[in-house]
């Protein structure tokens, strides 16, 4: 990523916001805050603007990743699954009006994949998938060295695929513990770390569900690399056994030998990827004609 002027990168999640100042491919300042309690558009924008002002050092552009389907050309965010009230938000126009800076936006999973492709383990790969496992479950797709977002920037929304009378996201994210088991994931994690058998069994089961989702990715794209990120991916040591056990049933075992599946180790990769959306970074996006 070649750039001269600094760029603001923003990772908007379902529970928190991260805002960073990126200069020459390096993150030189970072601020993190929880979303305001009401999560309304204006409340979030006000917090976001304060954070931008806190880290800014002459940036003229802002890149932002949002956990939903977006119109990346018009800068409109649609139907954010885990932030109620965000059905149709003209985020680009609103943020440009508040900051006076040029704004680029895309899906947060695309930003994660782009960040890994440009700054992380994806460097040198041409075909890779970045999967976010956190409050939700979604993927960003790099094909032939370009972000593939589809016609409506909805490519990679694996979490919405029907699964077990529900959808994959309910089984392959933190929602597995809160929605289906009735216990917060953090509590299950602490118990599992302390060798509680029931909690360790839950993580084993969770790993099996994540493997089912990864098999769908493999059957669909057959990439060189699948890299997992997001808050829940950090618990991989606890669900690795269940994950690897279920993955053995993949129909083409030779393909498994030729794909890397790993957990991201790139710090603040989604913020870096969001900054890379901006025009000055010369990112290639593969769009389907509308």
TrEMBL record:
Keywords: Kinase, Transferase. The keyword Kinase applies. The keyword Kinase applies. InterPro entries: ATPase_NBD (IPR043129), ROK (IPR000600). CDD domains: ASKHA_ATPase_ROK (cd23763). Pfam families: ROK (PF00480). Belongs to the ROK (NagC/XylR) family. This is Sugar kinase.
């Amino acid at each position: 990523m070649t750039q001269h002027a600094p760029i603001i990168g923003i990772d908007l999640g379902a529970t928190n916001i991260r805002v960073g100042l990126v200069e020459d491919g390096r993150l030189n300042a970072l601020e993190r805050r929880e979303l305001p309690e009401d999560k309304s558009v204006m409340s979030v924008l006000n917090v976001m603007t304060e954070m931008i002002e806190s880290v800014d050092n002459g940036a003229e552009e802002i890149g932002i990743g949002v956990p939903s389907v977006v119109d990346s050309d018009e800068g409109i965010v649609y139907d954010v699954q885990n932030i109620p009230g965000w059905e149709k938000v003209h985020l680009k126009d609103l943020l440009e009006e508040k900051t006076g800076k040029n704004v680029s936006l895309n899906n947060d999973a695309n930003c994660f994949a782009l960040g890994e492709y440009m700054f992380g383990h994806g460097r040198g790969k041409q075909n890779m998938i970045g999967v976010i496992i956190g409050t939700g479950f979604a993927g960003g797709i790099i094909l032939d060295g370009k972000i593939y977002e589809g016609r409506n920037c909805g490519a990679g929304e694996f979490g919405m695929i029907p699964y077990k009378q529900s959808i994959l996201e309910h089984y392959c994210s933190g929602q597995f513990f809160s929605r289906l088991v009735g216990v917060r994931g953090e509590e299950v994690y602490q118990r599992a770390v302390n060798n509680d058998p029931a909690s360790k069994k839950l993580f084993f089961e969770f790993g099996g569900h994540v493997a089912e989702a990864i098999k769908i990715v493999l059957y669909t794209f057959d990439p060189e690399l699948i890299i997992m990120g997001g808050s829940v991916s950090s618990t991989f040591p606890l669900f690795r056994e269940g994950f690897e056990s279920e993955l053995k049933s993949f129909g083409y075992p030779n393909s498994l030998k030729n794909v890397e599946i790993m957990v991201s180790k790139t710090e603040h990769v989604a913020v870096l990827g969001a900054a890379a959306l901006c025009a000055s970074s010369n990112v290639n996006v593969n769009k389907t004609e509308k």
